[in-house]
Design a protein that fits this description.
single chain, alpha+beta, Spore Coat Polysaccharide Biosynthesis Protein SpsA, Chain A, Jelly Rolls, 3 domains, Glyco_trans_17, FA58C, transferase, N-acetylglucosaminyltransferase
Length: 496
């Protein structure tokens, strides 16, 4: 490619960047810099940094960029050095940008921009600084997840520019093969070693990173040089990633927030002129939609927080100054993650789930008028603090399950009814004299456990009754009873 003269006293401007699949971002960049750039040097590979095969998407969509074709120098990378890791591949592809400069016959005084495609300089900054005699560090605002979610101001300093002769000077001892990447993070050190001046430009552009939604991000996490770093590995959990996006958590951090900002005159003109397209494509987030998603997430997290704190007996400010048990009752929360109340030790294999049970009586409080359906209800689903069966008030109310065959018993877990909440544990105390008996035939029973004289037991508050069956106890029938009153419990689980 012949080196043509231009209006800058013979000096030309080369915009050099690596490209993966960011077609929409490339549109923004080309339109933003077209008026000040002579050549766009685009380096694209047919493999990801993690070694996966990929299409060269720029070549596939080159007609989309036909208005800029006369300025574009495409540098294909069809083979990475063997046995090199993701970081070395990243450095190698960036170093290949020098091929494009050589192909164009770039001259020592030509002004060269080195960055990634999503690090877009302002055209005015390039116009103002293209004659600088040293390195130009382009400090950019950083945007994440959405174009209108700003992570920070002037915090991204990896893009830089310089006359070509200073680009060649980056090849310091030990960095002959990664000079362009090393300079992204060590420009000040390079200046100290070379004596070449450094010019820092604030508000120099936009770094639009981690855009495109869940599917695109998961693809990125498996492809880029950071693929095996802790944060991208953690974010491959879709639920966690969605939560991070909804909350606006800063990428690479778990405790910093980004902020939504208006798409105003400070944004690239191409984004402002095509705002509807970028909104419909998921790049610009509607602030009302974002707030609604945040409200929904807040309610979900508050429910989970209530479940995680059920063992606490004092009011909590994040639960409307309610005791957690009282809060889940008033909020009507029934779907409580069992992680919060299952005993830590392995109880064994549940042999009572969905078995047939019966009880001594039914009442107006029963969940079903049929004693079998009412009694069997306590063997299904998760505990939630409410009763699942309810006998009438009587002498010696009982509940019994048929395990269908004689089995060795290991553990019996009984979740007491805890709601309606009462500070004096009135509801829990009703099961204060609970007795557990076992039988081989349903006629002759052996007492296994008697709770009389012990403190009330709980349930979803993390304090269920856990009875360990020692001595090789075997049974087909398990019966729970009280001397008098009404028997009502939340969940019963029998393990072998």
């Amino acid at each position: 490619m012949k080196h043509h003269e231009n209006g800058y006293g013979g000096m030309k401007v080369f915009d050099c960047f690596t490209f993966y699949d960011e077609l929409d971002i490339l549109d923004i960049r080309l339109h933003e810099l077209d008026s000040v750039v002579d050549y766009f040097v685009i380096c694209e590979a047919d493999e990801t940094f993690t070694g996966l095969s990929k299409e060269m998407l720029f070549l596939k969509h080159r007609e989309r960029y036909a208005p800029f074709a006369h300025k574009i120098i495409h540098v294909p990378v069809t083979r990475f050095p063997d046995r090199y890791n993701a970081w070395v591949r990243d450095c190698y592809q960036r170093e290949c940008l020098l091929r494009g400069l050589e192909q164009a016959g770039a001259m020592p005084d030509d002004f060269v921009i080195i960055s990634d495609v999503d690090e877009i300089p302002r055209h005015a900054v390039i116009t103002q600084n293209r004659h600088q005699p040293g390195y130009v560090q382009l400090s950019m605002d950083m945007f994440q997840y959405f174009m209108n979610m700003r992570r920070s101001r002037n915090s991204w300093k990896s893009a830089y520019a310089a006359p070509l002769r200073h680009i060649h000077a980056l090849r310091l001892p030990g960095h002959e093969h990664d000079s362009l990447t090393y300079a992204r993070f060590n420009l000040e050190s390079i200046v100290e070693q070379t004596g070449i001046p450094l010019f820092i430009c604030l508000d120099a552009g936009w770094h639009f990173t981690h855009l495109g939604g869940i599917e695109q991000l998961l693809k990125k996490f498996g492809s880029y040089a950071h693929a095996n770093d802790p944060w991208p590995l953690k974010m491959r959990n879709i639920d966690l990633l969605r939560q991070q996006i909804t909350m606006g958590m800063s990428i690479w951090h778990m405790n910093d927030l980004a902020e939504y900002v208006p798409v105003d005159h400070t944004f690239p003109a191409y984004i402002r002129e095509n705002r509807t397209y970028f909104h419909n494509a998921g790049y610009i987030k509607d602030i009302y939609e974002a707030f609604r998603e945040l409200q929904t997430l807040y309610l979900k997290l508050r429910m989970q927080y209530a479940g995680a704190t059920l063992s606490l007996t004092g009011p909590l400010p994040y639960l409307d100054n309610e005791v957690p048990l009282a809060f889940i009752e008033k909020a009507g929360i029934t779907d409580i993650d069992p992680l919060y109340f299952i005993p830590a030790s392995d109880p064994g294999h549940n042999i009572s789930e969905n078995r047939r049970a019966t009880q001594s009586s039914v009442s107006d409080w029963s969940c079903h008028p049929d004693p079998v359906l009412d009694a069997s209800n306590v063997l299904q689903g998760r505990p939630d603090g409410r009763y699942k069966f309810h006998t009438d008030i009587q002498h010696n109310p009982w509940w019994m399950v048929d395990l269908e065959e004689v089995s060795p018993l290991r553990t019996i877990i009984v979740y007491n009814r805890l709601l309606p909440y009462a500070p004096d544990q009135l509801v829990q105390k009703r099961a204060g004299e609970l007795k557990i008996e076992v039988s081989l035939d349903g006629e002759t029973f052996l007492e296994l456990y008697d709770h009389a004289g012990r403190p009330p037991f709980g349930g979803i508050d993390g304090n269920p009754l856990v009875v360990t069956c020692a001595g090789g106890i075997q049974a087909r029938f398990v019966r729970l009873s009280l001397p008098a009153g009404a028997l009502h419990l939340d969940k019963i689980e029998i393990y072998r």
